[in-house]
Amino acid sequence: MTSDTNVTRGWDKLSSTLTRLARPEACPEGTPVNMAMTRGSTVLFPTLNDMRRQGQKRFDHAYIYGAMGTPVQHELEKAIAVIEGGTDCQVVSSGLAACTTPLLAFLNAGEHCLLPDSVYSPTRRFAENVLKRFGVETTYYPPCASAETLASLMQPNTRVLFSESPGSHTFEVQDVPMLARVAHAHGARLMMDNTWGFGIFAPFTHGVDVSIQALTKYPSGHSDVIAGAVTVAKPEDWHLLRDTAIQLGQLAGPDDCWLTLRGLHTMGVRLSHQARSAMQIAEWLKNRPEVARILHPAFPDCPGHDIWKRDFTGAGSLFGFVLKDTFSQSAMETMIDSLKLFGIGASWGGYESLVLPTSKSITRNFLADEAEGPSMRLQIGLESPDDLIADLEQGLDVLKVHS
Q1: pLDDT digits (tens, 9 = 90+) for 64-76
Q2: Which of 364, 366, 346 lies closest to 356, judged by CA?
């Protein structure tokens, strides 16, 4: 088992980084702590030549036209790029748009991509509907596949190897450096949904070419923003991504960007508390007789635990658990309905605790070999972990009554 220090050390360092990063330049008349809000569609210029010169700066996070990003969006992009360790970032309208925009940017008709079987379900649907309609073939691979298995699935026209680590429902941690070696050996880019690992996993240090974030989750942190981000580290990738985003009309509204910038300042302290609470609750659940398995990367029996220890500097607030097979799906759903402090809802990363059933709700090409009971996912918020444990305890009592 890991220690509290291990699951929180990345978050504890993040607040200082963000304070240095986002502190505005002081001026003689004084400077507010938070950046001023800028809303606008049309941007006025003194002369036509000024307008033309500014229009040539589309790769420079410059204020050209509202639909190409506002100053507050550009500041958010700079902050995300620093946290991810990349050079440039494009903020887009949602976490799903952060997955789909680079797929459209880096795949052409007649090409092939590999997706992990644990991939976010809307990304799977996009591949099976939109990409397929545009002539892109998709193959799924087991999330813990070996280098040999992955190499055997690569085709001469494979251009993207996609990763999501850990999977947001089943929590397998992937060997990202190995994925990068396989992708690059076959002339493909490694694209990663790094939403769970934002701030605690350095994608570009581990060979990722394109890192994806749902800013809806940890960065905004208050369940009132829909936005996403795509970060790269190579100029050629940035130019292709940026041009594709402009042509798709992809951006986020200034209010969402401002709220996310503000949320970034408290993300480290929020997630340090939430990660510690999540570990406390997961350890309590592990010792419950109703629970078969904990799906948390910090637990030794979670697939990829050793990789998590090697590559991550902490853990998040989201994990799952599997009930023993003596309990039915309907009994678990009755248990979920009985919970008082856990809201029932999609998404995660906010200050509030959430619960969501994961069995009977995900599509998988590679089914688990072992027979297991129903499963659910917990997002642990800022509430007292003792209160959350008490709520789960009464829920487990309900589970036993209805089985």
Answers
A1: 888 888 999 999 9
A2: 346
Residues 365-393 pLDDT 10s: 776 545 689 999 999 999 999 999 999 99
Cα–Cα distance list, 200 to 55, 71, 196, 205, 292 (Å): 36, 27, 9, 12, 28
The average pLDDT across 143-163 equals 97
* 59/76 Cα distance (integer angstroms): 15
Tokens of 342: 């856990």
Q: Hunting for tokens 């795949």 — which residue is that?
A: 107
CB proximity list for 49: less than 8 A, separation 6 or greater: none
CA distances from 276 to 177, 220, 300, 359 (A): 27, 20, 17, 26
> How many CB atoms are located within 10 Å of the residue 44 CB?
7
Cα 163 to Cα 58, 180, 220, distances in angstroms: 29, 10, 23
- Residue 202 tokens, joined: 């350095």
